[in-house]
User: Fold this.
Amino acid sequence: MYSNTLILDILDYIEQNLNRKITIEELSHVFYFHKDYIMRLFKKELQTTIMDYINQKRIYYCLEELGKTEHSILQISLHHGFYSQEYFCEVFHKILGVSPTTYRKFTKINSNITEEELQTIRNTLPFLVAKIQQVEEYKRNRKTKEQKTLSLFH
Assistant:
């Protein structure tokens, strides 16, 4: 089964614009489809909402920076398309179950996080990674131009 071309185009657009505010209305305008149709199709194809996917993708990219740099939480949040540290922390906690500060401690050797926080990260991190991998697999199912041409004759 091949991936939906509109959804693939939306995923490409999201990836190219991930560091700035993206709205459903903007996607509707860019792709000339009603926002309700785009939202339903995206949810059907990827089993997540557009905004949840955008936030998951942003948080996914933040993880490495949190673990390998000393940039402030504010700097990281602004760099990855969040326009307030508070909202970034809220989304981060919703996805991973811990704060960005706790996650940063988790990445450090001899960190002082609780066993409960450690278990939360161990339980939630694989789900985030799996969701990102699911979308990447979806993107790999893109029809080639040659396949599209051939399918017109069958």
Observations:
- The domain at 1-146 is CATH 1.10.10.60 (Arc Repressor Mutant, subunit A).
- The chain has a mean pLDDT of 88.
